[in-house]
Structure formats: C-alpha cells, structure tokens
Amino acid sequence: MTLRTSFRSQALIRRATALSVVAALGWTLSPVSAHASETLSATGNGWAVDASTALANAEADAYGNLYELALSRGESCTNVTYTTIGYYQIPGAPYGFAYQERATGTCS
Q1: Tell me: the pLDDT tens digits for 5-32?
Q2: Which of 11, 55, 60, 98 could be disulfide-bonded to 88 (CB atoms 3.0-4.6 Å)?
C-alpha cells in the first residue's frame, strides 16, 4: 500500500464517520425522532338539574380524563372534540339529566 492510498483510505474513513455522526444527530434531534401523533379518547359523566349544565359537566369530566391519559404517556392533546355517547332524563330525581361524553384529541 502506498502512502497516497493510505491517505485516501483515511480520508474516506473520516468522511464516512463525519457523515454518520451528522446523520445520527439529525435523526436524534429532529421532530421525526419524537413519537408520532396519535388519537386518544376518554369518556366522562356529568349530572345536573338542567341539561346544559349536565352536558358541560360531562365534557369537563371527559376532558380531564383525556388530559390524565395523555399526561401518563408524556403527551398533550390538541383539537379535542366531544361526542355524546349517552343522554338520560331521570324524572323526579334531584339531578334530572345525565350525560356521558367522549373526548377525542390528537396527542403527541
């Protein structure tokens, strides 16, 4: 092996090493390296004398449960939407309306 070939080999090894380090840093520090967004959902219940308060209570409970679920995974959620799963009107009860809501959000 000549001296010239030896320098070329060393230069190639240094370049390959530098490119590997740059690629590894780029992968580690890029947003792509973070886990991808996922859709999570949680349910909640609410009761009240009137329907609008019962619905608001159920949405708040569902959002709180979704928040706790995301927090347990080290995530936070955006674009949260609500879906009514169940609605009950209870005649003669002090809390005449009951709702069950599902909160769904994009979490990452």
Answers
A1: 555 666 556 665 655 655 555 555 555 4
A2: 98
User: Quick one: how far is CA 2 from the chain centroid?
Assistant: 58
Of 77, 60, 59, whose CA–CA distance to 69 is shortest?
Answer: 77
pTM for the model stands at: 0.66
**50 and 102 assigned to the same domain:** yes
Q: Are residues 96 and 54 part of one domain?
A: yes
Beta strands in the chain (DSSP E): 38-48, 77-89, 97-107
């005449």: which residue's tokens? 96
Residue 57 in tokens = 């209570």
Q: Which two tokens stand for residue 90?
A: 């209870």
Q: Are 108 and 32 in contact (CB under 8 A)?
A: no
- What's the CA gap between 1 and 8, in Å, rounded? 11
Q: In total, how many domains does the chain have?
A: 2
Dist. CA 18–CA 61, nearest whole Å:
52
